[in-house]
């Protein structure tokens, strides 16, 4: 039965592989033996990873899973997360090492050493304490990518308060619902933020959001743009007036390993946003270990740059906690990648000699669209590891990244994980794995994942199905804030019998047993009874020389159940009338049929200037489904740029 109706058809195949170079392998942090070691004794393996941290009290038990699905890791252990990320590096004699090379969008810069970061975090911790914030209180942070965002997060961690970071671009309504749900006592924001060369107000939005918000006692405002802001006496305070005069001494208190660290809201496709709860010891061990192994990070040698926003989990785990625990020197960039020009990232890499660069497929495809000649103008020879996160990376985008950014020399690591998992779960290990374009390949040592069918039975090689995590891991969410039932229902009910965590993603094994991620199961298309993943059709489209980005959706079809409708963005230099003409569209449809089979041939292809994306670069396919099925466009509040839908609809109306 399951054989007749697989959860997902396996359509694309990939035969290119790239073994690690000998030089890289010889110095790699990770070794092939880790897989077997972790397999043999998972808990002992994780205990060794936890030893990367400073514990004030050592744990007595690695894992307590007796209250599943509520895990406890490093039971009885005590530590201070901020001390681990900052103070201990200063105490070990690295106070003068630059922690953050900050680059402002208008071109201003700041270098912050670990000693300076320690002073700032201590002052901010004292400031929050002076406002009455104590352990377990919630602090909402809506800030753009400025150093104060990182300082504020670490200050909360230092005093045991939970932060809830909200994207700088989110609307007042989105901020308000998060503030209310967490009952935040303090909100930290800025006067305004630079986006694409212009100053946009931030404080004014926050004021709108907080009208009548009863939990909020104080609003702390970082001065960034210098523009005038509305002010509520009694409630509002300038960061510089509050924080700067504080003493730079602050004794960190050791908190329980399971002390809550933060809440981060994920939008989810339906219902109110879920406040994902992370705790201290297990989470920090997970992100420190994965940052060390997956990026091959060498403290004091590498310059690391993760381009994520702090409002996304990637910013939490791979800008703040993992990297700082590992004594990174990192670039933090405030602005957009094309301000003031499309070579901005490459210019920054050249200037700071960035050696590890971690970004999202959406940006890689945007760089492809802008053209190869842009990165070619810069010296990118400092790079040695490239990472990708957020979406499946299409094999062609992977190849482009490897060639045009990595000079065919850098390993590319495609890292699969989620807000809920806390840290990276499935990824190649540089220096160990024979890399394969487009595949996240294998669960990391210490992690267990499987692809299963409807009944929870593991599928064989070449089979497609649902991705599940079948063993608990240290960085796992500890629940949904204030809603234990929803936590069990959302993640643990689908395969309750087997006790699997259901990630909500489709996946397949290839002939080698490597894992390929195939997009959210909600997006799977059903064409004449074939379950086709959006990812595979999109990858086939992107493998055509004229296409930079593609999004496909299933639209109701009277004969096939669903028909595939594709939206494509053309590559730089490709004239729209040439590539968007009837013949060219026909050629694209045939290309898909040739790459993956006639069943996947799009019914319709539309050339569009942009695609609707969330702030972390994920395509919002439900909005495109609305277009494809001629419906009114649904809720656009979590789009990075809400004008994109108008652009798409008007372009289609005018027949372009
Ligand atoms: C880190 C992050 C999680 C969802 C996840 C999946 C998609 C993330 C991916 C990937 C394929 C990758 N996703 N990384 N899909 N390959 N390397 O993105 O967290 O924002 O919670 O999103 O993103 O669909 O389930 P989050």
Automatic annotation (TrEMBL):
Residues annotated as binding ATP: 390-392, 414-419, 505, 520, 531
GO function term, MF aspect, one: AMP binding
Coiled coil: none
Reactions that this protein is recorded to catalyse: acetate + ATP + CoA = acetyl-CoA + AMP + diphosphate
Database matches in SUPFAM superfamilies: Acetyl-CoA synthetase-like
Residues annotated to bind CoA: 195-198, 314, 338, 528
Keyword annotations: Acetylation, ATP-binding, Ligase, Magnesium, Metal-binding, Nucleotide-binding
Domain named Acetyl-coenzyme A synthetase N-terminal: residues: 33-85
Domain (AMP-dependent synthetase/ligase) ranges: 92-481
Record-stated family: Belongs to the ATP-dependent AMP-binding enzyme family.
Cited function: Catalyzes the conversion of acetate into acetyl-CoA (AcCoA), an essential intermediate at the junction of anabolic and catabolic pathways. AcsA undergoes a two-step reaction. In the first half reaction, AcsA combines acetate with ATP to form acetyl-adenylate (AcAMP) intermediate. In the second half reaction, it can then transfer the acetyl group from AcAMP to the sulfhydryl group of CoA, forming the product AcCoA.
PANTHER family: ACETYL-COENZYME A SYNTHETASE, ACETYL-COENZYME A SYNTHETASE 1
Name of this chain's protein: Acetyl-coenzyme A synthetase
Provenance organism: Saccharomonospora marina XMU15
């Amino acid at each position: 039965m399951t054989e007749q109706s697989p959860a997902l058809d396996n359509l694309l195949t990939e035969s290119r592989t790239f073994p690690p170079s000998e030089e890289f392998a010889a110095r790699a942090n990770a070794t092939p033996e880790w897989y077997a070691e972790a397999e043999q004794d998972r808990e002992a393996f994780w205990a060794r990873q936890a030893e990367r941290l400073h514990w004030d009290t050592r744990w007595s038990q690695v894992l307590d899973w007796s209250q599943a699905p509520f895990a406890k890791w490093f039971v009885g252990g005590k530590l201070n997360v901020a001390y681990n990320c900052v103070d201990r590096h200063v105490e070990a004699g690295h106070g003068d090492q630059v922690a953050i090379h900050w680059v402002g969008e208008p071109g201003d810069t700041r270098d912050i050493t670990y000693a300076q970061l320690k002073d700032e975090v201590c002052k901010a911790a004292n400031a929050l304490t002076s406002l009455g914030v104590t352990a377990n209180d919630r602090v909402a942070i809506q800030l753009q990518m400025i150093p104060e965002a990182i300082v504020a997060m670490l200050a909360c961690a230092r005093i045991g308060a939970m932060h809830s970071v909200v994207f700088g671009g989110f609307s007042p309504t989105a901020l308000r619902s998060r503030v209310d749900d967490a009952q935040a006592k303090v909100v930290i924001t800025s006067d305004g933020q630079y986006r694409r060369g212009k100053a946009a107000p931030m404080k004014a939005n926050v004021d709108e959001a907080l009208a009548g918000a009863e939990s909020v006692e104080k609003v702390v405002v970082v001065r960034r743009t210098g523009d005038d802001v509305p002010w509520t006496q009694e409630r509002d305070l300038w960061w510089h007036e509050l924080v700067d005069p504080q003493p730079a001494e602050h004794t960190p208190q050791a908190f329980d390993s399971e002390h809550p660290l933060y809440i981060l809201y994920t939008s989810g496709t339906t219902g109110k946003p879920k406040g994902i709860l992370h705790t201290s010891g297990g989470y920090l061990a997970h992100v420190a270990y994965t940052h060390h192994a997956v990026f091959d990070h060498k403290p004091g040698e590498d310059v690391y740059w993760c381009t994520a926003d702090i409002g996304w989990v990637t910013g939490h785990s791979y800008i703040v906690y993992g990297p700082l625990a590992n004594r990174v020197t990192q670039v933090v960039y405030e602005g957009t990648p094309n301000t003031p020009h499309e070579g901005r990232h490459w210019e920054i890499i050249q200037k700071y000699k960035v050696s590890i660069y971690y970004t999202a497929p959406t940006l890689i495809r945007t760089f492809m669209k802008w053209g190869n000649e842009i990165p070619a103008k810069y010296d990118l020879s400092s790079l040695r590891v490239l990472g990708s996160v957020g979406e499946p990376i299409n094999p062609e985008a992977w190849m482009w990244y490897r060639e045009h950014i990595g000079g065919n020399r850098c390993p590319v690591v495609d890292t699969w994980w989620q807000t809920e998992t806390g840290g990276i779960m499935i990824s190649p290990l540089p220096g160990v794995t024979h890399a394969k374009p487009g595949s996240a390949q294998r669960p990391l040592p210490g992690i267990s994942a499987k692809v299963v069918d409807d009944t929870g039975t593991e599928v064989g090689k070449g089979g497609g199905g649902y991705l599940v995590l079948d063993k608990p891991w240290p960085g796992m969410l500890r629940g949904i804030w204030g809603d234990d039932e929803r936590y069990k229902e959302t993640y643990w009910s689908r395969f309750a019998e087997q006790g699997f965590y259901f990630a909500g993603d489709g996946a397949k094994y290839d002939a080698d047993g490597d894992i390929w991620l195939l997009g959210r199961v909600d997006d799977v298309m059903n064409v004449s009874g074939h379950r086709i993943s959006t990812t595979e059709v999109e990858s086939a489209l992107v493998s055509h020389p004229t296409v930079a980005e593609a999004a496909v959706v299933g639209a109701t079809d009277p004969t096939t159940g669903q028909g595939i409708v594709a939206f494509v963005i053309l590559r730089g230099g490709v004239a729209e009338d040439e590539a968007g003409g009837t013949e060219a569209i026909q050629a694209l449809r045939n290309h898909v049929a040739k790459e993956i089979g006639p069943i996947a041939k799009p019914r319709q292809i539309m050339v569009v200037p942009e695609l609707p994306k969330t702030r972390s670069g994920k395509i919002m396919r439900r909005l495109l489904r609305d277009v494809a099925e001629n419906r009114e466009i649904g809720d656009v509040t979590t789009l990075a740029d809400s004008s994109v839908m108008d652009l798409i609809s008007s372009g289609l109306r005018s027949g372009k």
